[in-house]
Amino acid sequence: MLIVKYPRATEPLWHEWDGKAQKCGLRHTVYAVNGDQYTGEWLDNLKHGKGTQVWKRTGAIYSGDWKFGKRHGYGSYSIPDPVTKEYKKVYTGWWENDQKCGYGTTFYPGGEHYEGEWSRGLRSGWGRMYYGDGSIYEGQWLADRPGGEGMLRLPNENRYEGGWKDGKKHGPGKFFYLDKGQLFEGIWAADIPKCGILIDFGREEAPAPTQYPIPKV
After folding, report:
1. For residue 177, what are the β-bridge partners?
2. Apex 128 CA angle, 134 and 151, nearest 5
3. In whole angstroms, what is the distance from residue 27 CA to residue 22 CA?
4. Within-domain flag for 44
5. pLDDT above 90 covers what percent of the chain?
6. How many domains does the chain have?
7. Which domain holds residue 206?
8. Is residue 123 assigned to a domain?
9. Is residue 14 part of a domain?
10. Does 95 fall in a domain?
11. pTM of the full structure
12. How do residues 121-171 score in pLDDT, each as one tens digit?
């Protein structure tokens, strides 16, 4: 009986190479064509899990969680100082779909920083902002500006408590002039007091009280 043997079908070499090129699980540093580099976990050729990305053009580094190729979860983002070349942390906190989302802290040039809630990369929700002149705002934020209820404390300890809109005092509010021992309570619109009453408040403890007390109505 004649037996005919047929040669086994062989897979093209590119199939083998393509299989080896698929990235899934933990990998050593992988370089992109533009010089960016990533070290960490992959899933279906996408950054997924824990990993560190370095951008060649800016030198920025992100280290933290990834989900299907985007920053998602908890992580920190840092950039090199243009003079000292030492890395300075810019943001530490939560991310969603490659944007700041949830609770996190951002450091700005000049020593300013914000700690609080974010949404789609903007300050939204509750947060506290430390400004370069020593002022501190604590309260609600909307679309990256104070919006809702909040308190602004100035370097001389004077403070405003009340409503905000588009980053300006708006609506019912109180301004405590603790340096003079007075309190203004009224309605504000776009940072301008429209109507209200001014009374003495803590006049005895004020460092620079007005010459004459305000008569009681």
Report:
1. 182
2. 75
3. 11
4. no
5. 73
6. 1
7. 108-216
8. yes
9. no
10. no
11. 0.83
12. 999 999 999 999 999 999 999 999 999 999 999 999 999 999 999 999 999
What are the beta bridge partners of residue 96? 99
Beta bridge partners of 33: none
Instruction: Name the one residue in this structure whose structure tokens are 């309190």.
Output: 183
**Burial class, 186, CB count within 10 angstroms (exposed 0-12 / middle 13-18 / buried 19+):** middle
**What's the pLDDT score for residue 203?**
85
In whole angstroms, give the CA distance from residue 12 to residue 23: 20
Alpha-carbon gap, residue 74 to 92, rounded angstroms: 8
Number of helical (H) and strand (E) elements in the chain, helices listed first = 1, 15
Tokens describing residue 107: 């450091």
Contact by Cβ (8 Å): 122, 114: no
Q: How far apart are CA 161 and CA 207, in angstroms?
A: 21
The C-alpha atoms of residue 188 and residue 87 are separated, in whole angstroms, by 43
Q: Under 8 Å CB-to-CB from 122, ≥6 apart: which residues?
A: 100, 143, 144
The CATH number assigned to the domain holding 188 equals 2.20.110.10
Q: Which residues of 77-115 are buried (b: 16+ CB within 10 A; e: fewer)?
A: bbeeeeeeeeeeebbbbbbbeeebbeebbbbeeeeebbb
Q: What angle do CA 191, 193, 195 make, to 5 degrees?
A: 155
Q: Provide φ and ψ at 158, rounded to 5°.
A: -60, 150
The amino acid sitting at 63 is S
